[in-house]
Amino acid sequence: MKLFKKTVLPMLFVALAALVACNDDKDGDDYVFVPLTPAEKAAQINEMQGNYTGKLYYNINIYAATIGDSANISWTVNAADSTLLIQDFPMKAIAGSVSSTEMQEAFLNGGTNPLKTQLYLYRPWGTEGPLQTAYFNIIPKGDEDLAVKMPLTIGGEQKNVTLLFTTGMQTSAYSAYYSVGQFYNKALVANLILKQVVVDGGSTYDIASLFIMKGNK
User: Fold this and answer.
1) Please, where are the H alpha helices in the chain?
2) What is the pLDDT of residues 7-30, one digit of tens each?
3) How far, rounded to the nearest angstrom, does the alpha carbon of residue 48 sit from its chain's CA centroid?
4) Which among 35, 121, 127, 210 would be 20 to 30 A from 90, CA to CA?
């Protein structure tokens, strides 16, 4: 736990800062922001392409910056369409965020499901020239952006639930988490933020949970 807090959480804060903050050395009147070119994006996603193994961290206390649990996961980045597919998203990661005992049990016994995401590479404000680190927004995709349907057995009955993700979560007047990530030297770390769970023909559960994926290829 202590090692994780020293290594992963600072990376996430860097990812957040890269998205919303300015570089003090480059934010003067003479700085001209130049977005990534198509060639730069192609080079970055080609470098990212491949198969990864790592962990999904969940039951995160965002105020204390501590992690409750983790599960082994694997994913693939496909350069052809800039997608990241988690082969085995663990449904148990959601159990601790729902209030219903029946839903907690359903998620704990829900096994794993694939989760497809879209990657959008960008240049952080305040940078220029070649980047050693790739920065990206990560958007879960189902039939619609940020809405992913998955099967779940609830009370012995097979149903579908829709996982509604979001691109950002405000934690206070001065802080927030975003659905962003970084890739450097074959290592990838990213945030996923689940907003709600909707049971088809049933209830809606407010979640507001942060998941962190981290691994290497």
Assistant:
1) 2-20, 38-48, 101-108
2) 445 445 444 444 444 444 455 567
3) 16
4) 121
